[in-house]
Specification:
Length: 434
């Protein structure tokens, strides 16, 4: 790969010095691809029974190098949310965040969802994740990835940071700003973006990143952690943004990232962390900051749980009467913790159980891939039968009448409705293979 952008190349020569030759040599290396296991649904052994995993990446304990990423995106284990396909060094930021049990976490620029799903894995069904994406199209991609992950302790908004952050003032233990950037760390994957890398674009990105951090700072509680990360390699959007933020926010202190992968960044103390292509990933920057001083928290309004005859009948029929739920408009959301009332465009919170419409409950795919061991199950082990289901075809299988959870080797992948002899396929059209 040849990069014809003198502004970028001169930047890298000045920044990297003797390591510049390593960067140039990396342009011809194969792309790094990896698979991160979902600890809420699977383990390495289950995935390895069908997928060849390479070595563990140096950035994360649940992530492994793989070769055929496109094929893995069509595997039923991906449909079921057993893993997430992610650039290896992108896993650094969440590990610097150091998520602990019961933390309240905010992922402010969250699409396409790699870091949000990683955070949910670290929370292990405790605490809560607020996840946000301003761009609606990207937010829909984030929603799809969160659905597959199967966690109910999260709320997804499609909001501006100016609207959302004041509503979360002082309540977050951990905040991640994986900011929109010029993306020079992804040039090998997206070579067309090289032409867009200009001095003006870099400066514009830095201004936007600092503005986002200004808003994010409001949400961090006393003693809380703010992690800033990008997938770009220049100093202007990385160390210099952090320096400008700290100058304007003396209540924050840059601390060691806690990471030992990659290499030290170019800040004065060497507390930030970087990964370059010759270190096993495409490229990432991470800075960890701690807030001191009081930050009075807002009190969020929580919604009461609902009671509805149709929903109760459905939960009894599928054998999960213990599930608690909240009805918002026509939609029914299952969650172990109460949901929140925010003045923002909420795309999803909890797990969507279904929708109440025209005097009936229409169940949702999200519910059937998130809860294991429902009452009426059809387990597929035959590959031809699996492919028929993934194409959206009905299955000729004798089962109890009513809604049926479809599993593949015991892993939920969707649902259908049976008349006792045939299961009508309810796999969403957008997830079908044809």
């Amino acid at each position: 790969m040849e990069i014809n952008n003198s502004y970028y190349l001169n930047q890298m020569k000045e920044l990297l010095k003797e390591d510049y030759t390593k960067l140039v040599a990396s342009f011809d290396l194969p792309l790094y691809k990896s698979l991160r296991v979902n600890p809420l649904k699977a383990d390495k052994k289950l995935i390895e029974s069908e997928i060849a995993l390479g070595e563990r990446v140096p950035f994360d304990e649940d992530t492994y190098y793989v070769e055929d990423e496109q094929k893995l995106g069509r595997h039923p284990f991906h449909l079921a949310g057993l893993y997430y396909l992610q650039e290896p060094s992108a896993t650094m930021a969440v590990n610097a965040l150091d998520v602990q049990k019961d933390d309240v976490v905010l992922d402010l620029c969250a699409a396409p969802g790699g870091k949000s799903t990683q955070i949910l894995g670290k929370l292990k069904s405790t605490g809560f994740l607020f996840t946000n994406e301003y761009d609606r199209k990207r937010a829909n991609t984030l929603l799809s990835n969160l659905e597959r992950w199967g966690a109910d302790n999260c709320l997804l908004t499609n909001s501006t940071v100016e609207n959302l952050c004041p509503q979360l003032k002082g309540i977050c233990d951990k905040v991640l700003v994986d900011a929109p950037c010029s993306g020079s760390g992804m040039f090998r994957k997206y070579p067309e973006s090289v032409a867009e890398y200009t001095e003006g674009n870099v400066k514009a990105c830095a201004r936007r990143q600092l503005a986002i951090l200004d808003q994010a700072a409001v949400t961090v509680k006393q003693g809380g952690t703010l992690v800033y990360s990008t997938c770009t390699l220049n100093r202007q959007e990385d160390e210099e943004v952090v320096e400008a933020f700290l100058a304007e926010h003396p209540q924050f202190t840059l601390v060691d990232s806690g990471l030992r992968c990659g290499q030290k960044g170019f800040d004065a103390q060497g507390f930030t962390r970087r990964a370059f292509p010759w270190q096993g990933g495409e490229g990432h920057f991470v800075a960890r900051m701690i807030r001191s001083g009081e930050n009075t928290a807002v009190r969020l309004k929580q919604l009461p749980y609902s009671h509805d005859k149709l929903v109760d009948q459905f939960l009894k029929a599928v054998g999960r009467e213990e599930i608690r739920y909240t009805i918002i408009g026509e939609r029914v959301y299952a969650s172990a913790v109460p949901l929140y009332d925010l003045k923002a465009a909420i795309l999803r919170q909890g797990i969507q159980l279904g929708s109440l419409t025209k005097g009936r409950l229409e169940p949702h795919h999200h519910f059937f891939i998130s809860f294991k061991g429902l009452k009426n199950i059809c387990d597929i082990t035959d590959v031809d039968e699996l492919n028929r289901f993934l194409r959206g075809e009905s299955l000729m299988k004798p089962t109890e009448r009513g809604f049926v959870q479809i599993t593949y080797r015991g892993v939920p992948i969707g649902f259908g409705k049976s008349d006792g002899f045939q299961i009508k396929n309810h796999l969403p059209k957008g997830l079908r293979t044809v």
